[in-house]
C-alpha cells in the first residue's frame, strides 16, 4: 500500500453516535447482548455514521433500528471519546417525538432501563460510555461521581 494511502487510513476516523435519550429527567440505558465481550454491560444506544450521513441523521436511524422509536436530536454533548481505532464516540441529547412508540430492545440489546439521576451508576456502563454519561449529567446540573 502506498505510504500516503496508509497514512490517510491511519488518520481516518469513524464516528459512532450515542443517544442520551432523556424523558422526564430520566436517561435511557441499554444493556448489550452482543458481541460477547460487551454483553451484560450498559451503554447509550446508537451506532456508526454511514459514509455521507450526517451524525444527527445517523442517530435518528440507529434509534429507530435499535429501539423502534422516533427520536429527535436536541444538542451535541461536548467532547469526543475514543473507542477502538478508528472509532470515536460522539453523543447527542435526544427526546422521543410525540406519538413515538416506547423504546424496546430490538437489536444488540436485551434490556432497557430509564434511570433517574440518583440511579445512573446502578448499572455497569461500558468504560467508553462513562465519561459521556458524566458529561450528560453535568449538563443536566446533576452531581456526577
Structure commentary:
This protein has three helices and eight strands. It has 145 residues and is α+β, with helices and mostly antiparallel strands. It has one domain: Nucleoside Triphosphate Pyrophosphohydrolase. Strands 1, 2, 3, 4, 5, 6, 7 and 8 form an eight-stranded mixed sheet that branches.
Tell me the quaternary state: single chain
* Helix content range: 10-25%
Instruction: Using the 3D structure, state the CATH architecture.
Output: Alpha-Beta Complex
The tally of beta strands, per DSSP, is 8
Low-pLDDT residue intervals, each spanning 5 or more residues: 4-8
Class by alpha and beta content: alpha+beta
Count of domain modules: 1
Question: Quick one: biggest sheet?
Answer: 8 strands, mixed
Class in CATH?
Answer: Alpha Beta
Task: Write a compact overview of the structure shown.
This protein is of the alpha+beta class and 145 residues long. 22% of the residues lie in helices and 32% in strands.
Topology record:
Blueprint (H helix, E strand, L loop, with lengths): L2 H9 L2 E10 L2 E7 L9 E2 L2 E3 L6 H13 L3 E6 L4 E2 L4 E10 L12 E7 L14 H10 L6
Parallel strand pairs: 1-7
Antiparallel strand pairs: 1-2, 1-4, 2-3, 2-8, 5-7, 6-7
Amino acid at each position: 500500500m502506498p505510504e500516503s494511502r496508509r497514512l490517510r487510513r491511519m488518520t481516518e476516523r469513524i464516528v459512532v453516535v450515542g443517544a442520551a435519550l432523556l424523558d422526564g429527567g430520566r436517561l435511557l440505558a441499554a444493556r448489550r447482548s452482543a458481541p460477547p465481550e460487551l454483553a451484560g454491560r450498559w451503554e447509550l444506544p446508537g451506532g456508526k455514521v454511514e459514509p455521507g450521513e450526517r451524525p444527527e441523521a445517523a442517530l435518528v436511524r440507529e434509534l429507530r433500528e435499535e429501539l423502534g422509536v422516533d427520536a429527535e436530536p436536541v444538542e451535541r454533548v461536548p467532547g469526543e471519546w475514543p473507542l477502538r481505532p478508528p472509532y470515536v464516540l460522539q453523543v447527542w441529547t435526544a427526546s422521543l417525538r410525540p406519538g413515538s412508540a416506547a423504546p424496546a430492545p430490538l437489536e444488540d440489546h436485551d434490556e432497557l432501563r430509564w434511570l433517574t439521576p440518583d440511579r445512573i451508576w446502578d448499572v455497569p456502563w461500558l468504560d467508553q460510555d462513562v465519561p459521556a454519561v458524566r458529561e450528560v449529567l453535568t449538563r443536566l446540573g446533576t452531581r456526577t461521581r
